[in-house]
């Protein structure tokens, strides 16, 4: 019975502390995923057009390298923008004192690299973990997209013929 009471008090106590984290974190995840998917869709359209246009020339491997390199750069910029959105949220809720610290923390959380000297305010710590979850989703989308694009623009692929 004591274990059940302890578990129940933990859940009730953390619910009050963590509800704001989830109220901020879930919409931020949805927003960044929408931005990411929209951005990758735009990049996909442009990459395919450029690939088809450039394939008329004689260097298919060079075309593949240029298209994948440019796409990777654009995906990285998308990740930076999404990290900036999280950093702004940290400043708005007062979890970190300034944008520079918030951006550094956010990059660490988004990449799950970690941060040894930057910590969110005590009542916002779960929000950092929620951002790490968001990073997994976004990097998974980017990885799947780049793998698909590699197959599309490879010289031996059906699309590349």
What's the arrangement of secondary structure elements?
Layout: H1 2-54, H2 60-93, H3 99-110, H4 125-153
Task: Please name the defining characteristics of this protein.
mainly alpha, 80% helix, 161 residues, single chain
In short:
By secondary structure, the chain is an all-alpha fold.
| Number of strand segments | 0
Q: Average pLDDT across residues?
A: 85
The sequence of SSEs as H and E is: HHHH
Q: What is the count of structural domains?
A: 1
Taking all Cα atoms into account, the compactness measure Rg is: 21 Å
What coarse outline follows from CA principal-axis ratios?
A: elongated
Please state roughly what percent of the residues sit in beta strands, choosing from under 5%, 5-15%, 15-25%, 25-35%, 35-45% or over 45%. Answer: under 5%
Report the end-to-end length measured between terminal Cα atoms: 69 Å
pLDDT under 50 segments (min length 5)?
Answer: none
Helix content: over 70%
Number of helices: 4
Largest sheet: none
Structural class: mainly alpha
3D structure, described in words:
The chain is 80% helix and 0% strand. It is mainly alpha-helical. It has one domain (18-153). Helix 2 (60-93) packs across helix 3 (99-110) and helix 2 (60-93) runs antiparallel to helix 4. The longest helix has 53 residues, at 2-54.
